Amino acid sequence: MRPAIPEPPYEGGCLCGAVRYRIEARPIGVNACHCRDCQKLTGATNLVMAIFERAAFAKTQGETQVWRKRADSGREVDIERCAACGTRLWHEPLAAANLVYVAAGALDDPSWAVPASHIWVEKRLPHAFIQADAVQVEGQPAEREALFEAFRRLYPE
Ligand SMILES: [Zn+2]
Ligand SMILES: [Zn+2]
Predict the structure, then answer these.
(1) Which pLDDT belongs to residue 71?
(2) Which ligand has its closest atom nearest to the C-alpha of 48?
(3) CA of 13 to the centre of ligand 1 (A)
(4) Which H or E element spans position 17?
(5) Hey, which residues does 91 pair with through a beta bridge?
(6) pLDDT in tens, 3-50
(7) What domain range is 107 assigned to?
(8) Predicted confidence band at 157 (pLDDT cuts at 50, 70, 90)?
(9) How far is the centre of ligand 1, averaged over its atoms, from the C-alpha of 89 (Å)?
(10) Cα of 119 from ligand 2 centre, angstroms
(11) Is residue 121 part of a domain?
């Protein structure tokens, strides 16, 4: 079942409470990645990210620690974590500085962040769930736009 996307703002933060952020606009995508890197990164079956325009996002308190991840594709992303408790909070893709990928589970209300798309589905673990109405992509789509299209189809404004 897909709850409606609530109206912004959205807030979230880390486990220890030191880092908080606020987002002033609706998401443009909610994507799940099942690649091996994301399984490692999360220690779970997959990574779920809500994607926003960077301009709508602001850290409101706390210190973060950054680690730059380089994918096999050559794409780089800055992964931001709480400097105190290590909770992974958001990703900033270097090739798309206008976007921010927010770790859905760290939102104060993560219940609405149901993936509209799943990528690297050929790596999906048997216990990872995929919604029947979500778009499934093997590997990575050539264009991020495919993920946003999948989202707009399920959540027309
Ligand atoms: Zn923390
Ligand atoms: Zn991944």
Answers:
(1) 78
(2) 2
(3) 8
(4) none
(5) 79, 101
(6) 999 999 999 999 999 999 999 999 999 999 999 999 999 999 999 999
(7) 10-154
(8) confident
(9) 9
(10) 8
(11) yes
Tell me, in angstroms, the distance from the centre of ligand 2 to residue 93's CA.
13
Model confidence pLDDT, tens digit, residues 54-92:
999 999 999 999 999 997 778 899 999 999 999 999 999
CA 1 distance to own-chain centroid: 19
Mean pLDDT of 86-104: 97
The rounded Å distance from CA 94 to ligand 2 centre is: 16
Is the CB of residue 45 less than 8 Å from the CB of residue 39?
Answer: yes
For 115-152, the DSSP string reads -SEEESGGG--TT----TTSEEESS--SSTHHHHHHHH
Into how many domains does the chain fold? 1
**CATH number of the domain within which 17 lies:** 3.90.1590.10
- From ligand 1's centre to the CA of 86, what distance in Å? 6
- 5 domain residue, yes or no: no
Establish if 1 belongs to a structural domain.
no
In a domain? residue 89: yes
